[in-house]
Every structure is written in structure tokens, then in C-alpha cells.
Amino acid sequence: MSAAAQSRVKSPSLDQFELSRYAKTLALGESVRMGRLSDLTHAVSFFVKRKATTPMSVTESAVVEYCDQLEADGYSVETVEQRMSAVSAYFTWCVRTMKASRGSEPFTNPAVGIAPSHLSSCAQCRAATNNSLKGDCVVRNKRLKKWAIAQFESSLTASAANTRAAYRRDVELFAEWMLDSMPAVVPNMVEKEHVREYLAALHDRGATSRTIARRVASLRRYFAWAIRSGTSKTNPTDAVHTPTVKGRLPRPLDAETVARLVSTEDDDAPEWRRARDRVVLEILYGSGLRVSEVCGLTLQSVSSDGSSLRVMGKGSKERMVPLSAPATEAIRRWLVVRHEVAGETTGSSLVLSARGNALSRRDCTRLLDEACERAEIPGGTHPHALRHSFATHLMDNGADTRSIQELLGHSDASTTQRYTHVSKERLRLVYSESHPRA
């Protein structure tokens, strides 16, 4: 958090809003909780400048003005939505916990029904492909105009689509952090101290060294481009220390847990949802696909005999992967009921959401969370863990590294060799638990 932002947090005029108390009620990770607190501090500071002294004195017009101001300042579509969602959630908490004094009007949420003028659900902002990547939206690209972030993203021609999207979002978050304390900031005004203060703020919020290292890489790439394009004269990331990222081994699930996870179904859900969820889970584990690859599958991806999938992986590299017998049966079952959610604009996407759109990565994560809850898996898991489990179980049962590399679509064998380390660790654990002299 910048010095200006810190001074605002300590301002006595904010005490009546009890932001710290509210933050403690959030069932979120430390990094997300601190980010939410920072966003709310920005909003409340705006309300205080409009003569608000307590949450109950914030009017609907003040919230509308704040939303309009965020958009006018050039904050990204995603950030405006997130901040308005955070403001609405905060006032909902205030309504529940802060009772109006006797004889006064009941306190209602002033943010209810207030939405940005431009949403990420617009036709242009929505996915241009069958995953959750953003499309090419004119309104979206005009945000942070002086930072020319859309042009920067377009320059990353050698990077995969997911990488370009991640770089863009990282730069947007930094630019918005700068805007919070320097409303007229442009890239040429950024100095090393600003970058270091930003990284310190990320650390204070609980961001991991891996996250911080990625942000540094994104900013370094951006400012190198800014110098070439004339947007900036210096690179403020020069001599900025990149934190050491500790290598970590994949954390696979055991075979029994995975079997319980992929076979669980919601008895109260309609048949199309049960069939759809089963397809996603069976393919994630049975073929080891990335979640973005599952979202990008089409009807044409399935071979004529239903025994394999044609997958478009990272870097637009295509590969063929076999389907397990349960996955083949799950696809057959799903295709029988797919028409129940398919619409005129559905296209050829294999797995669909309730609205007939191509399934997004967030949809996959959500259905996996629900499956973990039904399977009673403590702490849950994530889609990539099923890919790790797929590779590790192949390795444990004698598959060679080269075959696993082809199935996973790894361009570098060293990436696949991580799973040999996992198996060695599992052997060591079995030895330590079983051998009398271990």
C-alpha cells in the first residue's frame, strides 16, 4: 500500500466504518482479504470526502458517483466490477450488524442495483475462444489509455493466449495501484521506488513469492516494451530484486480418493448437469487435460469411435490423447442430453454451461468444488491436481517418461520428470511407514 493510502487508512474519519472488523469476518485467504480491505479503504475515503461520517450516511448517489469516477479514471472493467461487488458486500454486512437508532429510518444497502456502465459480460468482452480469455472490446481497450496496455498485449505475439492475458492483468493491477495515490500517473512517471513499494504491499497482503515473481516479470516485460514504443524513457524494474521461487512438487490425490471424486453425482441435480459434470471430471483425470483444454473441446474433438480426443494445447500445439472407458461412456451419456442446454448460439463446444455457453475455467472449478464437498475431501482440490494425479498414477504403474510427456503435451521432458520425483517421494513415504528399521 502506498504512503498516501496508508495515511488514509489511519485517518480518524474512517474509524466509524469499522473496516478492520469487517475484514476479519471474511472467509478468505490473507492476500485476498488484505486486497479487499485496500479496495474498501479507497471507496470509503471517497465517501468521506463527500461528507459521509458513518456507513449509514452514505447515499445511493454517492455510490453511483464513486462507480462513475472509477470508470472515468480508467480502471479496468474487471476492477470496477470487483470493487463495486466489494462495496455492496460491505454495506450488506453493515445493514446486518449496525442497527439504526430508534426513531430513524431503517438503514438499507445504498449499493443495491448499482452496476458499472460497462460489464465484462458484454459481447466483445466475453471469451473470444472457448475458454475464459477476454475478447477484443473497444471500451475495455480504452481503459488506462495512457498506459497503452491493449497495444502491449498485442505485441506479445510469441506468447500463448493465457500468458498474454496474465501479463495484461498484472500490468493493469499495478497501474491501478498507482492511480490510487497518483490519479494522473503515466508510465514515464513510474520510478524504482514505486515498484519496490508495490511489491512490498503485495508481500504485506500475503502474496506468495511465486506471485510476486510473476508480477515483476510482467512489469519488466511491459516497461521494456514501453521504452521501445516511446511510452517510457526508463525501465523502473531495473535492479529490482526478483524473489527466489522455491520449486515445489505436484500434490497428487491417491487413486482411491480420485475414484470417489469423479464418480460422485448430485442426486438433486437434473440429468444434464450430472452428465456434464461427470464428463468434465472423467476427462480431467482420465486423460490428464488442462482445464483450458477441456473448455476448448468441441464435438469434432471426439474421434468417430469415441476412443480418443484431439486436443489443442499450449502454443496451439495439437495432440491426440486416449479416452478411458468411463470417460467414453460419460461422453455418450452427455451427448444424449446436451440438447437440453444447447441454444442457437451454442456452436460446437462439447461441454456447456447452464446458459448454453462454452464452459469456462471458473465453471470447472465450481463443479469440482461441489464434487469435493460431496466426496468429503477435506480442503477440496483444484482442476490441475487431477492432471498431476493422472501423470503420477501412470508413473507409479510403470509408464515411461516419454509416453507421459506425449500424453500431457509437454514440450520439455524436464517438466514431465517432476513426476518421477513425486513417485520417489511416495516410495520413501511407504518405506518409512512400513520398514521396521526406517
Task: Explain what you see.
A two-stranded antiparallel ribbon has the order 1-2. The model is unreliable at about 1-10 and about 130 (pLDDT under 50). Strand 1 (about 310) and strand 2 (about 320) form a beta hairpin. Helix 8 (about 160-180) crosses helix 10 (about 210-230), helix 11 (about 255-265) packs antiparallel against helix 12 (about 270-285) and helix 12 (about 270-285) packs antiparallel against helix 14. It is globular, with a radius of gyration of 25 Å. It has 19 helices and two strands. It has three domains: about 1-125; about 145-245, Tyrosine recombinase, N-terminal domain (DNA polymerase, domain 1, Orthogonal Bundle), CATH 1.10.150.130; about 255-435, hpI Integrase, Chain A. About 55% of the residues lie in helices and about 0% in strands. It starts with a helix and ends with a helix. By secondary structure, the protein is mostly helical.
Specify the number of helices: 19
Query: Which percent range fits the helix content?
Result: 40-55%
Question: Given the C-alpha coordinates, what overall shape results?
Answer: globular
The assigned structural class equals mainly alpha
Task: Return residue spans where pLDDT drops below 50 for at least 5 consecutive residues.
Answer: 1-12, 128-132
Q: How many domains is the backbone divided into?
A: 3
Q: Order of strands in the sheet with the most strands? A: 1-2
Please state the average pLDDT score. Answer: 85
The N- to C-terminal Cα distance equals 50 Å
CATH architecture of the largest domain: Orthogonal Bundle
Instruction: Please provide the ordered H/E string of secondary-structure elements.
Output: HHHHHHHHHHHHHEEHHHHHH
Query: CATH class of the largest domain, please?
Result: Mainly Alpha
CATH superfamily label of the largest domain: Intergrase catalytic core
Kindly estimate the percentage of residues that lie in beta strands according to DSSP.
Answer: under 5%
